[in-house]
Amino acid sequence: MSFFDIFKKKNDPVPSTQPTAAKKENAPTMSNEEKYGKAWLLIVGQKQKDLGLQMMRELDKAGFVEGSIALSMFCENQAERKALVKKAADAGNPEGLWEYCGFLPHSYIPNPNNAADALWEKYCLEAAEKGSVDAMNEMGNVFNRRGNFAESMYWYAMANANDHPQGKMGMVGIARKWAQNGCPREFVKGSPKFDAARHKVAIAYLELNSDNELSSSPDDIIRLVLDGVPIAGYFAGDLFESIGNDEMAYKMYNALAFENDAHALKCYADMLFTGKGTQKDPQNAIRMYLQAAEAGDRTAMFIAGELTKASNKNMAAFWYGVSHSRGYEHSLQRMVQLA
Q: Does pTM top 0.85 for this prediction?
């Protein structure tokens, strides 16, 4: 089935064929996810913090990367902490990649021709592309300082969509520069890696957020979706929500959810849960929230904790723990309450 065929259908995304972590709750022995959750509950409960940290060390030794990230939060020894986040970074963990950036020297405006700057940017960009919200916002800062405003708007918009507190401020700042200068399209400088789809959608965001009329036709954005450009589908959904066209936003998220895009799955679940742009379907929304959590959306991870805390305390703590490691502000409080 093509991406175009998927878009035309109103069927729900096919659930992940991978067994969900929540399904492991009836296993005779605890999964690594449940051990991780239990370790967090011991740590935040304070009375058995040492035992919880020991469990995290065992998970780290077993190669469970989330254990390495959690353990790094409690390391006072910087060399040990660096080794833990490097291990997570090497495994492709988005927060490991982002945290490792903190150990790499770089310039305020990274120079791609400088070896140290290039290495830092490599890790930061990979972290952003794999879902680190802090890295998304930082890439917005980097491209803003370079004057690459389309790329900057793209990353600020990504950060804002994932609830980073500075994402919207960055978007507004770029839009003001756009509006005040009345700039031609040449104002937006894209790097060779910045593809045409991202460029077109970023232009639409610039115009929309600077209170100009949206000259980029929504049909052009939809055409990119039908051509199989996932990033266009994600932004199209957010774009249509911004202008109050919930039905089209639902269709965009529906199409992109088939690609297992974490944030699109979460947005799709939101619309199913609230009935925006479609009929309410709470049960299917729950299924989509869990799938979004498994795909890496930190808000969906928190919601997965809420959904599982009544049936599996350790599994709920796993979801709260991983969302906490990704900077979701309410997760630690929930773990304390659960402990």
A: no
What CA–CA distance (Å, rounded) separates 2 from 130? 25
105 belongs to a structural domain: yes
Answer yes or no: are the C-beta atoms of 97 and 132 closer than 8 Å.
yes
Q: What is the pLDDT of residues 233-265, one digit of tens each?
A: 666 777 777 778 899 888 888 877 777 778 889
Q: Is residue 252 one of the residues assigned to a domain? A: no
In angstroms, how far is CA 282 from the centroid of its own chain? Answer: 23
Distance CA 163, CA 157 (A): 10
C-alpha neighbours within 13 Å on the C-beta side of residue 144: 24
Q: Which domain holds residue 54?
A: 32-131+296-339
Q: How far is CA 176 from the centre of its chain?
A: 26
pLDDT score for 7: 38
What tokens appear for 152 in the block? 């900057």
How far, in whole angstroms, is CA 166 from its chain's centroid?
15
Sign of the CA dihedral running 195, 166, 251, 222: negative
SS3 per residue for 180-227: HHCCCHHHCCCCCCCCHHHHHHHHHHHHHHCCCCCCCCHHHHHHHHHC
188: left (phi over 0), alpha (psi -120 to 50) or beta: beta
Number of domains in the chain: 1
- What distance in Å separates the CA atoms of residue 334 and residue 299, rounded to the nearest whole number? 13
Is 276 part of any domain? no
